[in-house]
## 1
Amino acid sequence: MGSLTVFTQVANFLKENQVTFVAVSKTRPNQAILDRYALGHRIFGENRVQELVAKHQDLPKDIQWHQIGHLQTNKVKYIVPFVALIHAGDSLKLLQKINVESGKVDRVQDVLLQVKVAQEETKHGFLPEELEDVSLLTEIAELPNIRVKGIMGMASFTSDQGQVRREMKKLRQVFEQVRDTNIFGDAFGVLSMGMSGDYKIAVEEGSTMVRIGSLVF
Ligand SMILES: *Cc1c(COP(=O)(O)O)cnc(C)c1O
């Protein structure tokens, strides 16, 4: 099956389930993005700042660009003028930096709090226990130039489906617990989880936004 056919099938499945589809276009050429744009798709995700900035410059301006990978503080300034959503809000320090830089360009930047539930040491994010700390959440909520819209997380890269499901249940639990504090108000409604290998489990476990790359390109 061609990748555009798979793209359409995945897009339709997600639409039926009312899950937002972020097409992860990192490392893909502009033409591959334009082919999917021509099908009506508008939300693309990138994990490298330089590539994201170049693609934003070269491609249609109504694309909503999402920054999905770990973001270094010194690179925040290059993307805050245009990026629709930063998924990898993985430390207080980074969120404070995003707040400062988005203030400089008169924006309120939408962000997600990345939560680390996977076993791998390499993954970034707040620990679930850290987000039980109401004073931390309040400090984040008081940053005037960011708006926290939800939680992002990744399950472990493993063939153990049971483990993937348990980690996604944990992400959903953290999402609901933070939401129910009401500290971030009504804007807080996004649970970004699910990738090529595990998006069906993610949808079953309550994901509202998936980030899918290799399967659909
Ligand atoms: C690359 C990437 C994805 C997409 O992964 P695929 O397995 O290609 O679907 C999703 N989220 C993040 C943070 C990524 O870096």
## 2
Amino acid sequence: MASLKKILALVVLIECTILTESSRLLEKKKKKNDGYGDNIFNVVNFGAIGDGLKDDSKGFKDAWDAACGSSASSPAVVVPQGKTFLLQPLTFNGRCNSNNITFQIDGKLIAPSEPSAWECKRNCHHWIGFKNLDGLSIQGSGTINGQGSKWWKLYCKDYNTGCQLRKPTGFLIANSKNVEISGLTFEDSPKMHIAFESSTSIHASHLRIKAPGNSPNTDGIHIQRSTNVTIHNTTIQTGDDCTSIGDGSKYIDIRNIECGPGHGISIGSLGIMGKTETVEFVHVKNVSFYGTTNGVRIKTWQGGHGYARNIKFERITSYASTRPIVIDQFYCPHKHCKNQTSAVEISNVVYEEIHGTSHKEIAVQLSCSESTPCKNITMKNINLRNEDQNDKTLSHCLNAHGLRNGRVHPNVPCLRFDDNF
Ligand SMILES: *[C@@H]1O[C@H](CO)[C@@H](O)[C@H](O)[C@H]1NC(C)=O
Ligand SMILES: *[C@@H]1O[C@H](CO)[C@@H](O)[C@H](O)[C@H]1NC(C)=O
Ligand SMILES: *[C@@H]1O[C@H](CO)[C@@H](O)[C@H](O)[C@H]1NC(C)=O
Ligand SMILES: *[C@@H]1O[C@H](CO)[C@@H](O)[C@H](O)[C@H]1NC(C)=O
Ligand SMILES: *[C@@H]1O[C@H](CO)[C@@H](O)[C@H](O)[C@H]1NC(C)=O
Ligand SMILES: *[C@@H]1O[C@H](CO)[C@@H](O)[C@H](O)[C@H]1NC(C)=O
């Protein structure tokens, strides 16, 4: 008898739960049904306030979960314009029902301005992340501001010995494919603004990325272990590389970019601490560099393995960048490096139609190691003048081999003249 009562009580309890759950869903459905239709998930309807003060993370997470779980064929999370949303570190995870989700950002997103107010404290990997997605478009006229200025002042004297500080990447797309990201403005990230990691077919265009020229490690877009990535029609003004192309990247197309201030477009650094790292099939076309420290650069550490190959830089204009063309197989930002017998191999690199001015006298620097010379480097139609009209430009060559054709100024005598290409 007692057990029957118990079972009855349980049934009633379950029914009540089901009832409240379904009325909650109904309520949610009503809320989101704000004139757009059933596929729109406006963060405001999920509790986000947008006053720039209250933590809106939950509203975003709930809107995402609803969109991701929705049976609509093209669900869209909407972040309305005219509001500022404060977000703690947040990851939007995939395996969603739809493979055509839109994340429409027209408002402003901000991170907590005090590093101590970040919920991950001194060990934050990223601020906003998208993971495990297939078929996502992140778009809109909104701004994503990492409020990094207080992070920039924190640093460890030596990153290798017991330093517990990890600065967060602003915006991460990882383990995903078929992602488009366009129209947005990114500002003041604590570290790099955008990172694409372990992803395939990621297409970025019409972005603006902006941070002070002296902000440390604020790369514009970093690519790592990713295939088929395009970055088009984008302006990047930061304190580090405009784009950096790291290990495991291939089929990368970077086009119509305005870069500077910053450190230029870099492949690498590759081969740190003896690692085997690879980059191949990179095409950089129609890029202007404004007062950057480097223009197009390939940098590798001594002692590494692997390769950087099949790389083409074309239609590059330098406006007083310090060194427009650099290959550096002795990369060492901290002065404690030793020369070693192995190095990441650099080969099949094309420079074509590279014009403008250089801030330093040495406009072209090809520094390759004796054990692993750079092979098949070709230059065609290069004209780099000194920013100061009265000074000439020079090249520096060490263990670099290949061909040159057409006018190549400054002369790069380590490349053999050949007019057959
Ligand atoms: C994907 O979603 C967008 C925006 O909702 C829509 O314009 C487009 O037609 C959809 N594409 C497909 C293949 O469903
Ligand atoms: C690269 O991405 C584009 C667009 O998403 C796609 O059409 C193309 O097939 C992809 N190429 C490769 C090699 O994956
Ligand atoms: C980038 O701009 C060029 C020139 O205006 C245009 O032809 C091209 O379609 C644009 N690319 C993208 C991906 O929007
Ligand atoms: C080259 O890039 C610039 C932006 O830096 C763009 O305005 C121009 O249209 C591009 N040229 C071509 C031919 O796409
Ligand atoms: C490594 O070798 C290069 C080229 O010979 C030289 O310029 C550089 O000073 C060497 N570095 C060290 C730390 O010995
Ligand atoms: C040299 O590099 C070019 C451009 O990447 C490539 O087409 C060519 O096959 C390479 N030549 C050799 C001998 O590897």
